[in-house]
Amino acid sequence: MTIQRRGVWLLLALCLSAPSVAEAQISPRRPPPPPRVVPKRSVKPARPPGSPNVAPSSLKARQGYTTAARLIRSIAPAERVRGFERLGDVGTPAAMELLGKSLEPGGAAKRFEERLTVVRALAMRASQDGPRQALARAMASSSTGRADDPGEVLVRDTAALALARTGDERALEILGKALRQEGPIAAAAARAILAHPPKNLGPVLTARGAPTRTLVEVLDALGDQRAFATLRSWVKHGSPELKGRAAVALTRLGDYETVELARLWLAKHAKEAPLAVAATSILLSAGTSDAGRALSALLKNEETSDAGLELSRQSRNAELLPLLTERLAKADDTGAPLLLGAIGRVGTPRAAERLFQELGSPRHGAAAAYALATCPGSDARALLARALGKTTTRRNAARAAVVREAVLGERVPDLDAALRALIVAGDAADRAAGAWGIATRNADDARALLGRADPVVVRAAARAALDERSANVAAERLANETDPLVRVALAISLVRESSARRVPTSVVIELVEGGGGAAAIAAKALATRDGESERPQIERLAQSGDPLIRAHVALGLGESKEPSAVGLLGEMYRFEQDADVRHAVVVALSRRTDRTRQATLRLAAELDGDERARSAARLALRGTRLSALPRGRSTLWLSLVDGGAKSGAPPEARIGTSSGASLPVVADPDGAIVMTGLPEGPLTLRLAADAGGGKP
Prior knowledge:
Strand content: 5-15%
Number of strands: 7
Shape: flat
Number of domains: 5
């Protein structure tokens, strides 16, 4: 994968989860939405969806309705939001009707915060006809006119989830119709159905409208045998793309009659790309002897080659090697790492030899080294040992040997000697590779290297300082360190609260205010120290324009000693548009014991549009204390080519992990960032410059 950011080229990002091997996802993020600044109000826990109201007296209901109707006509946004919340609390048919009308064109709910408040209030009675129809309108409309507006996506997801949660036939029929119109509405319906799988699938299957790709994908993901007959009918009468996807879904349901159909498609419809790709996928799933031949045909065809390369992840067919090698010779910087990974998965001695030949390539050396590190078999290990003996390949071979040891548990001969030679080399990149390898393999050595005078060695060793004792050593040095890049690298220690306590608050604030790679993790450390003097700055950071800062403030508040931190977390969640920030709030609340956290957790568990946040909230409600510590069995290998060519300094970066924590790192002088022991799941890369200087 090649991504150009401000003169920085990202060559490769690979993530591996033992015992299986998978490539990391480095997802280019959209520019983050600006935070919604909502006037402060007294903290009132969100009413969880479906919770009963205290039945008001008729007088109380009338008074509440009258007050709410007046508030929603106010010119003050905060008062309008309070009015919509009060209508939800009143809960009478008249109140529900007024809420529904507020979502109509020209209605009282105009801003994102107001629309989301109305949808959440209607969700409590989504099984009733009026609220159900109003939620359907909320799915289909937008106050901004932009379907991809983050706020409108959240409103749409919340409405769809509210409908799916009821399990009501008429609500499911609405979602079934939505699935038959491709676009953002169908996507919201799909997420909702998968979040709350229906006990009765009939309304989804029989809703009016033509079947779509999204609908087939939902049925495939559900894996529900009740969709069998419907999928079979679409195989017979759909478009080529629909036929292909339906046939693949049937195969995953266990219908291997599709194998003969796949062969028929390859024989008579090989030029129709959707059918050819689907047929090959079916043969690979069934493990047939002709699957390799079908996959080769996809790789040879320019129109289907990308799909073939993706499907090659399922195959270790030696027949593919000549074709993959041929394509590698013509590949650009984007395609080469993918092809080298595919060659590594072939796993034969000839495949390992081909990777060995690429180790010295300036363009492909890093990708070839990673592929060889994860290539199974003794031949790959022996070739890495050979590469350690050559000065032109020793550096990347040493990194690959350390990765292989961490992933496959295989020691590469002569690795110790190679690392010792590298760490005393005159080339700074060699010293960095040696330091990282030694620190990764032995925690005692890591702690010793963190005390070295050579900043290149310290920066590289810091990437291995994720265990508690090493993090403590890094934090103690950070307390007095003056070198800016070394400070960023050592700030990885702030991910652990016990280590962060060794760093003075003044240093933490400097890192936050200075921006750069360490700003986010420093914001977490500052929020952990929440108190009367720190609270104003924490509240300011909680409204930062950078969602990464907001997320780390939330993670830190999970460890705050202040009871009011739960209220602040609830306010942060209330109208937050960024899914990562909402997930961080949920993780933080899982670490609190205050009863007031329950309302926000129940809201997230039922109606959050992000699957990670919903799952985390459900775990938290069951008493699980979720951890933000980024520990696991995954690895990362990144190459930032010419990253510091203009400034003369290697770039700072933040590695986002599935735990929610973002790790500050500094690339080695040759642009390499290699790490092990990361949590399973997708990883994200963000250069410190991507946030406009990194200022919070």
